[in-house]
Amino acid sequence: MPRNDADPVLWEEMVVVGRVARAHGNKGAVIVNVETDFPERRFRVGNVLCLDDRGQLRSLRIVAARFHQGRPVLMFDGVETMGQAEALAGAEFRVPETELAPLPPGTFYRHELTGCIVEGVDGEVIGTVSGVEGAAGAYRLSVQRLGESDDQPADIEVPLAEPICVRVDPEQRVIVVDPPKGLLELNRRR
User: Fold this and answer.
1) What is the per-residue pLDDT across 31-49, written as a single tens digit (0 to 9) for each?
2) What is the pTM of this model?
3) Going by C-beta distance under 8 Å and a sequence separation of 6 or more, which residues neighbour residue 18?
4) Which of 6, 12, 69, 164 has a CA-to-CA distance to 119 between 20 and 30 Å?
């Protein structure tokens, strides 16, 4: 059922854009580890970030922002002391998916690929995408093998590259791969 714009956005349906690394200084600032490809757009004054505060959705409006060594240093309305900032350490910042910028054709957000079924060109199901790792030009799908036991999980790293990922269809929740012989065995992690 499609979402009505008046419906509240649920935490589980929001997208991670960063995590608080630690407090910075004594006036309530925090340093954020970025989990978005558009940090300058996402972490600007006036934007609102959401966090889970003991099971309650809490919104924080950015009142000051600057970048230091590639990471945003942010101050929020209502967070004015070192103690308040320290309480945010480890917090995950999320935004509603509707706030994400549209991407060019053939590019995807990480959350769109997580959970997709990965199958070979022969139709054999290999596993499920548990995450996307790496940086621009060197992204890898972390694929949880089917049938692996929970106490001994083994992921496979599959390069997210056109010659290997021949069909990426997040709407159908499937990624079809045609890996070179031996790649899946070679890229197995425990």
Assistant:
1) 999 988 789 999 999 999 9
2) 0.70
3) 32, 33, 34, 35, 36, 39, 42, 43, 49, 72, 92, 93
4) 12
